[in-house]
Amino acid sequence: MKKLTAIVLTAAMCMGLAAPAMADIKVAFSQIGQESDWRTANTDSINGTIEAHEGWELVYDDAQQKQENQIKALRNFITQGVDYILFTGVVSTGWEEVLAEVNEAEIPLILVDRLPDCIDDIDYVAAFGGDFVEEGRRQVAWAGEYLKSVGRDSEDVNVVIMEGTTGASAQTGRTEGNLAAMEEYPFLKLVGQQTGNFTRAEGQAVMESWLKSIDKIDVLIAQNDDMALGAIDAIKAAGLVPGKDIIIVGCDSVKAAFEAIVAGEMNATIECTPLYGPFVESCIESLEAGEEMSKEVIHPEEGVYDMDGGIDLGTVVSVKAADVIDERVY
Ligand code: AHR
User: Fold this and answer.
1) What's the number of domains the chain is made of?
2) What CATH number is given to the structural domain containing 53?
3) CB of residue 198 inside a 6 A radius of ligand 1
């Protein structure tokens, strides 16, 4: 095969044709699946950046939400002898063995998005992802501060928390942040807590069942915007007004959430950027230049967007979604 390629290249050169670019660096990416608008934007950002980079070849695998598919993909990347592996885990546990195999193969491992629990026991070259605990804290703090600002902190306010995929670090982190912040606002009463698996369809189904079984829901904390948007459909179908009868706080800050906020059907969204392409690119370029990256997990700077802006969450002040909706790229 190599001989044939050489003959074709030599013939092309003799004929004065430009030789096709050979990929020098194979960058493999084990993606979780395509459960949300966030995930689609994340895949597009990373894959688009790698594909557009001269001399880089993308080796991509979509695990369709299954850990066993991710494990197979990682072993396949090792067999193919790729140069870099980008990895995010659908859940946070159960990666020790396969990531040790990646380490044994001496393939630089770049951790993105959902980090594995065994992070301290494996070798990786860089790690980049959202601060999930802080995102969860901001969700509840937004609801608490907003309710205070409209004088509703003297009544009992019933809150439901719709969680992401059970066992994903985005779910465990945001739940930790949600529950810790609930302590700061004693007028918030937790009346429901269930997974909606980060999807619109399950967000709608969970909200439907809550509306049948819980007498009064005042606030929905949805650990991503897709679930919030699904819940909005269920709230409307039940004859209630989303954004008014039930205050809705999502997470991710996807364009569809901005549109819902501008339409008055959702109240706030906490940003978790999916745009990892530039980080991945500069990381691989630095490593190729022989530079070492810090092992510290890098969290991007993220905002909070809502109906009117000006809600102070200590670490960030919310911005009015309508003012910045045109800048949204995902
Ligand atoms: O891991 C990031 C989370 O996964 C996003 O918040 C969510 O939308 C996605 O499915």
Assistant:
1) 2
2) 3.40.50.2300
3) yes
Residue 20 lies in a domain: no
The answer to the question of residue 298 being in a domain is no
Atom 3 of ligand 1, nearest CA residue: 170
* 120 CA distance to ligand 1 middle (Å): 23
Which of 38, 111, 114 to probe ligand 1 with, by most ligand atoms within 8 A of CB? 38
Ligand 1 center to 236 CA (angstroms): 25
224 lines ligand 1 (CB under 6 A): yes
How does residue 90 score in pLDDT terms, banded at 50, 70 and 90?
A: very high
10 C-alpha to center of ligand 1: Å? 48
> Mind listing the pLDDT tens digit for each residue in 215-255?
999 999 999 999 999 999 999 999 999 999 999 999 999 99
Binding site membership of 302 for ligand 1 (Cβ less than 6 Å): no
AA letter at 298: I
